[in-house]
Amino acid sequence: MTVGSTIHDIGYRHYDGRRLGRGYVLRSLYVHNLRACHGFGRPARAKVMPSILALIMLIPAVVDVGVVAFTKEPGALMRYSSYAVTLQVIIAIFLAAQSPVLASRELRFHVVPLYFSRPVGPLDFVLAKFAALVTSLFALMAVPVTVLYVGGLIAKVPGSADQLLRYLGALVGCVVFALVLAGIGLTVAAFTPRRGFGVAAVIAVYLLPTTFVLIVQGIAEVRTQFTLQGWMGLFAPFNLVDIVQVRLLGAQRSAVGVPPGIAGGLIALALCTAIVAGSIAVLYSRFRKAGLS
């Protein structure tokens, strides 16, 4: 018995256009993750949390500028370098909510090998996610600080040159905050594929060390052990970066205590660098392993 067969031309053709290469893939991954971090390209409910948190971060700066403009009291203007430390809870919530979005979705749905089937490697994949979260965190902190600075200029706060230096120093601080927090958040979220667990884990990693450090610093202050109080700040993320701001960028202290001298700032900066480099290395290993499975 002979079975007839038909060959259909379904229109497959070779691609003859310009190949955009690895750089284009890396930029596309960065933009995709940046959009995902703020809920773009996702359901409307995904946009609610980042939008609300960004608004909450902005409100104190706007109100403070209004108070300065109305009262003509330049001393009422918040210090630029203290803004992130003052609103660290909001930043931590943003980090906990968005880190799993970037770090755990591909792991949860086992689609990492599909990414690596294209001209993109684990390091590119990790760097795109890391850069996207760093950008989002930096914008979350830098925009209100910029509002404070511009508002101060409009309100004619004295010492414009000095204000500019403080503003630029605060922006550098925002960069360090974003790098350290992004590294911690992504690393924790990458090992908790379920989003709910990831959110809880990131919050716990922020809350537990911060609470422990505050308790020890309080005890050290009561016992007048101020050196111990300062060095304990190295073990809480926001205190750690504040040490860098105070000892290396000339900012006023926002945390409970900071270690003495330039040496304290250099040690804090070295620890920040180790956190960033270590987190990238751990994320590289995690996604490389997932890509081979």
From TrEMBL:
<keyword id="KW-0472">Membrane</keyword>
<feature type="transmembrane region" description="Helical">
    <location>
        <begin position="262"/>
        <end position="284"/>
    </location>
</feature>
<feature type="transmembrane region" description="Helical">
    <location>
        <begin position="130"/>
        <end position="155"/>
    </location>
</feature>
<feature type="transmembrane region" description="Helical">
    <location>
        <begin position="52"/>
        <end position="71"/>
    </location>
</feature>
<protein>
    <recommendedName>
        <fullName>ABC transporter permease</fullName>
    </recommendedName>
</protein>
<keyword id="KW-1133">Transmembrane helix</keyword>
<feature type="transmembrane region" description="Helical">
    <location>
        <begin position="83"/>
        <end position="103"/>
    </location>
</feature>
<keyword id="KW-0812">Transmembrane</keyword>
<feature type="transmembrane region" description="Helical">
    <location>
        <begin position="197"/>
        <end position="219"/>
    </location>
</feature>
<feature type="transmembrane region" description="Helical">
    <location>
        <begin position="167"/>
        <end position="191"/>
    </location>
</feature>
